[in-house]
C-alpha cells in the first residue's frame, strides 16, 4: 500500500509500526530503557575532557532529537515530510528543523516533540533505522531550540554581542585577495593556528564554509552545555569566536567538534582563543 507521507512509496504506519509494548510504559521505565541503550550506543558528539580524560556524559533526555547521517539528496520539504512520517507515531511533533541546501548542514535534522517521553520512545526505537538506505544516528540535543524554550517559558535572550573592536584581530597568513576590484582578506590556513593556547572560555574556530553563518554555528555549538554566543567577524566568514560560561564547557565543545566535517572535504579547527 502506498502513501504520500511514506518513504520510497511505503507507508510507515504499516511497514514500521510503533514499538510493541504490552502496556504504555511510564516515564521512569522509558528513562531506564534509554539508560540501558546508552551502554551500547556511542553518542555522535562524545568527547573526552583534558583534565581527567573522562568521556563527556551524553545529553540528558529532552524534547529534541538530533539526527545525522541522513540522506543528502532530499529537498527540505521532502526531508521534513519523510521524517514526520517516521516519527509521528511516537507523539506530537512541534517542528522539524533542517537545512539540506547548505553543504555544511546536509545530513542533519532536529525533531522537536511536545513531550520528552515521546522523544525517548523515538530514540530507543529508531536508533540505526535505515532511512533512505542510511542508518540514522540519533541522540538528544544538548539544548532546547529557541521555539521550545519560548513555549516552556525558559527562553533567555542571548547576550548582546560585544563590540568588534574588543575582539582580538587575527593576522592573516597570506596576502589579501583582490576580487572584482575589492580587497578581501585571504583565508586562514588552519594548520598555521597554534593549538597550545591555555584553556579559555572562548573558542576560536577556523576553516568554516562560506555559507555557514551564525545560525549554523549556533546550532552546532549549542549542543554543548554552557553555550553563550557565536561572534562572527565581518568580511571573514571562515572564522568565528564561540563563547561558553567557563573553560570546562568550552573544553568539552572543543574536543567534541575538533575536526568536525562541515562538508565532505572540509574540517573545522577549534582552539582556545588567546586571552
From TrEMBL:
CDD domains hit by this protein: RRM1_U1A_like, RRM2_U1A_like
Gene3D superfamilies: 3.30.70.330
Key words, A-Z: mRNA processing, mRNA splicing, Nucleus, Repeat, Ribonucleoprotein, RNA-binding, Spliceosome
Domain of life the protein comes from: Eukaryota
GO biological process: mRNA processing; RNA splicing
A single GO molecular function term of this UniProt record: RNA binding
Principal cellular location given in the protein's record: nucleus
Residues annotated as domain RRM: 63-143, 201-275
Entry's Gene Ontology cellular component terms: small nuclear ribonucleoprotein complex; spliceosomal complex
SUPFAM superfamilies linked to this entry: RNA-binding domain, RBD
Entry's family note: Belongs to the RRM U1 A/B'' family.
Name under which the protein is recorded: U2 small nuclear ribonucleoprotein B
Organism of provenance: Hypsibius exemplaris (Freshwater tardigrade)
Amino acid at each position: 500500500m502506498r502513501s504520500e507521507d511514506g518513504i520510497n512509496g511505503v507507508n510507515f504506519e504499516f511497514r514500521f509500526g510503533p514499538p510493541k509494548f504490552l502496556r504504555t510504559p511510564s516515564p521512569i521505565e522509558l528513562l531506564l530503557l534509554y539508560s540501558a541503550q546508552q551502554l551500547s550506543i556511542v553518542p555522535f558528539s562524545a568527547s573526552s575532557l583534558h583534565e581527567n580524560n573522562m568521556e563527556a556524559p551524553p545529553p540528558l533526555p529532552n524534547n529534541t532529537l538530533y539526527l545525522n547521517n541522513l540522506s543528502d539528496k532530499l529537498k527540505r520539504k521532502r526531508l521534513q515530510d519523510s521524517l514526520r512520517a517516521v516519527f509521528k507515531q511516537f507523539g506530537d511533533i512541534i517542528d522539524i528543523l533542517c537545512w539540506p541546501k547548505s553543504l555544511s548542514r546536509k545530513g542533519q535534522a532536529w525533531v522537536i516533540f511536545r513531550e520528552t517521553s515521546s522523544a525517548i520512545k523515538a530514540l530507543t526505537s529508531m536508533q540505526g533505522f535505515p532511512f533512505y538506505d542510511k542508518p540514522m544516528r540519533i541522540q538528544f540535543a544538548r539544548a532546547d531550540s529557541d521555539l521550545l524554550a519560548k513555549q516552556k517559558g525558559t527562553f533567555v535572550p542571548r547576550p548582546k554581542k560585544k563590540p568588534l573592536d574588543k575582539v582580538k584581530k587575527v593576522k592573516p597568513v597570506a596576502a589579501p585577495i583582490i576580487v572584482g576590484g575589492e580587497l578581501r582578506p585571504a583565508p586562514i590556513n588552519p594548520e598555521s593556528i597554534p593549538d597550545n593556547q591555555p584553556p579559555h572560555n572562548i573558542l576560536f574556530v577556523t576553516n568554516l564554509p562560506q555559507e555557514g553563518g551564525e545560525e549554523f554555528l549556533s546550532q552546532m555549538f549549542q549542543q554543548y552545555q554552557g553555550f553563550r554566543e557565536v561572534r562572527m567577524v565581518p568580511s571573514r566568514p571562515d572564522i568565528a569566536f564561540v563563547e561558553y560560561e567557563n573553560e570546562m564547557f568550552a573544553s568539552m565543545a572543543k574536543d567534541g567538534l575538533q575536526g568536525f566535517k562541515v562538508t565532505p572535504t572540509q574540517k573545522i579547527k577549534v582552539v582556545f582563543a588567546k586571552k
